[in-house]
Design a protein that fits this description.
Order of helices and strands: EHEEHEHEHEHEHHEEEEEEEHHE
CATH class of the largest domain: Alpha Beta
Strand content: 25-35%
Number of domains: 2
Shape: globular
Strand order of the largest sheet: 14-13-12-11-7-10-9-8-15
CATH topology of the largest domain: Dihydrodipicolinate Reductase, domain 2
Bound molecules: NADP nicotinamide-adenine-dinucleotide phosphate
Largest sheet: 9 strands, mixed
Structural class: alpha/beta
Distance between the termini: 49 Å
Helix content: 25-40%
Amino acid sequence: MSALPIALAGIGKIARDQHVPTLAESGDFELVAAVTGHEAPQGIPAFPDIDAMMAAMPQVKAIAICTPPRGRLALVEQALGHGLHVMIEKPPAATLSEAEAFARMAAEAGRTFFASWHSRAAAGVAPALDWLRGRTIRNVTVNWKEDVRFWHPGQEWIWEPGIGVFDPGINALSVITRLLPHGLILEEADLRFPANRQAPIAADLHLDSAGVPVRVAFDFDQRGPQTWMIDIETDHGLLTLTDGASRMAVDGAAVDVGNEGEYPRLYRHFAQLIAAGRSDIDLTPFRLVADAFLLGRRTVVEPFDWI
Ligand code: NAP
């Protein structure tokens, strides 16, 4: 099968770090166009919006949307209106209602919609799921702590009213919602807001998964080594996922899970969904974030600055 012509919308950090290099190696897709207000990747024609792109390049069949969550609704409407298959970066949207609208719109348009969760494609997740089968989970601890200054340099959108530290935190939620078989209910949340910002910089969550306690700590102000770790205690050993679930250990001993990156898997899955005429839209991690805002106690902490 020949590669499907695909466009990228929003040529920022993640588009340049992951999508462009992954598409360059993909046998399923060929990157042929960019929708950008700034600069397209080298050698790729740039268009200010999807309408202009489709007028000039009607051969485009799919689009990956890599803009910040706020403002995606209009892009998704345009893309589906032109009959494109759509993949979106996490988190899926600015609000739950918008994200739910995507599912309806894609079904009406009869096109594939993939609300991607890149951390679910991390190398350790499928082996962890296999290892957990048949074991009884007793306790889960998540520590997901990174420096916003490094991962979102100068990105003011991340501090607009919105999910703040849950932007990385939702990656951990996307992994545990895949691994825990009985679903998750949020019981308590503590959200810490910098005095000069409208989004939380840290959060602690208490969740329950059919009687199993799940404790979660998110921090966007972690200097030095970064921590993306999930510990799952079972009746037969301790499973540890580190480095964003790209590494796995059992009782402290490393397990070889290979080293394939997340994005080749994501694009393979998108190609498979298109071939099968299906969509993949699981909003469970996003719903838990919304629950944290519904239930969370709020504390104002010291102002944030980028230095
Ligand atoms: P970014 O560097 O700020 O890039 C976002 C791009 O979206 C901008 O370059 C711009 O594209 C376009 N855009 C459209 N409306 C915008 C607006 N109102 N404000 C800012 N940019 C706007 O962001 P990013 O880090 O790539 O993140 C984009 C999405 O990917 C987010 O949902 C994020 O959660 C997700 N993500 C990020 C990372 C990461 O490590 N940074 C990792 C995984 C997923 P043009 O310049 O082409 O006009």
